[in-house]
Amino acid sequence: MTADPDTDRPLTSIIDRVAEITREGPVSLDRVVGAFEQAGFAAMLIVPAAAVVTPLSGIPLFSSLCGLTIFLIAAQWLLKRDRVWLPAWLGRQSLEGDKIRLAMDKLRPAARWLDDHSRKRARFLFRQPLRALLPVACLMFGALMPLLELVPFSSSLLGAAVCLIAFSLLTRDGLFALIALLPVAAVAFALTALL
C-alpha cells in the first residue's frame, strides 16, 4: 500500500501512512522514504520535511539528517531520476516508531486543515521555467538545515516551507508554494537592495 497523492486528503494520507509503517517499532529511513516511491518525489519530500517540523527536530543531528535527505531527494528530482538513491549510512538510520507516531499525531490536525483548504490556484507556478524553481527551493532549504542546526526553530521553518512546496505540487495549489517562497523572496530582495 502506498500513499496516493491524488486522494482528497493527500497530506493526511501521507501522515497516516508514516504512522502505519512505524507501528512495527524502529524503522529505517530507507523503508520510510521507499514506501512513497510510487507516489512521486513530492510525496517523498513531505516525509522528512514534516518530521523536522515536529518536536523531533530537538534530537541532536535529526534536522541535519532530514535536511540531507531533502537535499538528495530534490537533487535527484531535478536530475529526473526514476528512483531515489540514499547513501547506505543514511538509509540505515533508524527511527523510533513511538516517537514518529506521536509526531505524526501532532501534525494530523494541520494536515487536515491544509487538505480541506486546498484548491487549484496560482497554476502559473507549475509551468516552466517557474516549475523548476520549486524543487530548487527544496534543495536549498535542505542544504541549509545542517548549517542551521544550532539556531532554534530554523530547521522547523525550513521544513514547513518544503512541506508547503511539496503539498502545492501534489494539489496544484500554488498559493501554498508562494507562501513558502516569501521568505526566500524577502532575503533575495534585501540582498539586492544592499548591493
From TrEMBL:
The chain crosses the membrane at residues 59-79, 129-147, 153-170, 175-194. It holds the Pfam family ExoD. Keywords: Membrane, Transmembrane, Transmembrane helix. This is Exopolysaccharide synthesis, ExoD. It comes from Roseibium aggregatum (strain ATCC 25650 / DSM 13394 / JCM 20685 / NBRC 16684 / NCIMB 2208 / IAM 12614 / B1) (Stappia aggregata).
